[in-house]
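Anyone opening a protein record will find just a pair of labelled lines. The record below illustrates this layout.
***
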Amino acid sequence: MYQVILLTSPSGFARQQREAADEVVEHEGVVYSLRAGPRQPLPTDHAWDEVAVYAPEEISEEEFQDWYAALQPQVEELRLKY
């Protein structure tokens, strides 16, 4: 299983579990592309599935980096060490 984080906006995200980390996924009518991962987090107080981060296909890499940074405080998976 993969822990999938969908960055839906600069201030919003969705979390899913998926069997595969496909290059492209659809969620609520929006197409998302894989932008980071999948990566296996280093051990913490519990086991983690590999994490894959997606963002809408139409945003640039710079926008993705901004969204990722803005959402890091809210999304534990974005703060993990790999």
Summary: The longest strand covers residues 30-39.
